[in-house]
Input
Amino acid sequence: YGDHRDLHRLIRRQRQMCIRDRVKDMSSYIDQMVYYVKKVVGYTIIAKSEGIRADEEESFTGRALPTEYHFLKDIPIDNVNKGIGGGFFRVFKLPSDRIAISHVIYKGTDEYGRAVMNAHALVMAEDLYISLSANPYAFVNLFTHPIEETTLPRLSYEETKRQLKVLSPPTKLQNEHCIIVDLFLQIASGKENKVLLVLPNNIPHDKYIEEAFQLIPEDIRASIMLYSFSSDPDVEHGFNFIIVPKKLEITAAFVEKAKIARMDDREYKWSFEYPKKLKIIDSYNALSDFINNYLK
Output
């Protein structure tokens, strides 16, 4: 199953849902908050902008960081630092229905020599997220990860747009891109509620994920709640697309009601025709033309 009409119907349904659910106009602002260590208090919100609601702050506090450090799972912090922006992304919905795009980095050690993490989140309405590309990697330049208590500014749409990283489809398609696209579509279509994608090693493969986002429409991208390099794949925090280091493959296997896939699977069974067709395209220009025409 899964010819091109499936994808067209999916895109149309996503757009109808987006229009129906809009509650804010395009002049809305992007809010910010930062979760970090504060002496005596421990981890807490140390910085935020004026538009952050109390329920958003509470929800973010519970989901800002993994439940366990990577190095406790034998994944070196140096490996995590190889992710885009020097960390990893967590994208999820808040009680307000706004999207939180959180970038998490390891930020040195505390006074006791313990590694600490810093999570900087951008918070925006879903329609705003879609209009700003709905690719979390595009926002990487906006994460400054402050460590001091401060008030952060609300960002306008135009200001945010100017700082977005310019992204393009891959110049050369790999099997990995096509697998990720197929899995994205399984989430967006409702065929799967959660996907755990196991990496071939214990190093982030962000470039494949970033480029795969560019191969699908923004409306579908917005349905992907990404956790880009997990140290706790068995914890439920509202993510539906979790990237799992090879070291944690066994842990992933015990996650209930989740599809397990492998990025380096050479015998992958396709669910949709679109990624299968992408798989045979080599030329960058041909790829761009195909995407533009196929997704109309």
Observations:
- The beta strands are 31-38, 42-48, 88-93, 99-109, 115-124, 150-151, 195-198, 226-227, 241-244, 259-262.
- The first helix runs from residue 4 to 21.
- The chain has eleven helices and ten strands.
- The first strand starts at residue 31 and ends at 38.
